[in-house]
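We emphasize that the prediction below concerns an isolated chain of 119 residues; any contacts that depend on oligomerization or on bound cofactors are therefore not represented. The input was used exactly as deposited, without trimming of termini.
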Amino acid sequence: MAEHNELGKKGEDLAVAHLLKNGYVIVERNWRFQKAEIDIIAQKENTLAIVEVKTRSSDYFGNPQDFITPKKIKLLVTAVDAYIIQYDLNVEVRFDIIAIINKKNTFNIEHLTDAFLHF
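Result of the prediction step, given as a token string:
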């Protein structure tokens, strides 16, 4: 597996651990719809958190969350709509980003809730 793929997998595993530690239930990982993939679907109480995980080996080029494009957001919204219809859910939906930076084998995790409100 390529090094960047390994870092991405490690980041997703760290994000899941972070969510579990904070009282979330992991509903799905890597759920796909057409061209979109939702990294993590988690639930806490009556809120479904759609979590995009961005992991970087440094912040030299910017924060991980800065690499989420409007096109990616549109794909995620389409996928979430399909997910909610497919499972006939009646929950609040929130889009989160978990940004992870590896600094000398120490992973800094930042959980941004309602992250797409800032785009």
